[in-house]
Amino acid sequence: MKILHSKKQMLAFFLPGFLLGILYVNFIVKQYIAEPGIFSTYFLRQYAAVDIIAGEYMLYLVRVRLFPATLLAGLAFTRMRKIAAVIFLLWTGFSSGMLLTMAVVGMGVKGIILCVVGILPHFLCYIPACIVVLWYCWMYPRNRWNRQKTVFVALMLMMGLILESYVNPVWMKAFLGIL
């Protein structure tokens, strides 16, 4: 029962962030949505035409993906662990709401499908890794960090980086080819 309660508490921070992201796009940056952006046909054609070099892309992803993960993991071992978890959940909710709203406004249902294709398969690794760290932040001191959690989080992040570098560009190009 405590597990269900904690999941609801974490969801209680993600969902308001998600709603704020939707509201932000619809009311504050509405005038910028009409401008060409990442969901424009031109940008998507350019992306489909670019040859992505997986090794170089991996180096870029290490900087972009590991910084927030390392920051969250580092803060998980301080007294700010619960605040860090709340900020992380609010921010990921806000970013998700904003991205999905812009996708729907720019492309309709195809935009949602593009977002789903864009986060697969690597987010199937990133999400469990983040959940383990967030769960630790949320449940401390009842939940202790151990070697198994360290190995799990590190392996999931590495698998996510590999999938995002090598598999995701192929999936995105295949999807953009049928768009």
Automatic annotation (TrEMBL):
Q: Indicate whether Transmembrane appears among the record's keywords.
A: yes
Could you list this entry's UniProt keywords, alphabetically sorted.
Membrane, Transmembrane, Transmembrane helix
What parts of the sequence cross the membrane? 12-33, 83-105, 111-138, 150-167
Q: What is this protein called?
A: Stage II sporulation protein M
Q: Give the organism the record lists.
A: Schaedlerella arabinosiphila
Q: What is the lineage of its organism?
A: Bacteria, Bacillati, Bacillota, Clostridia, Lachnospirales
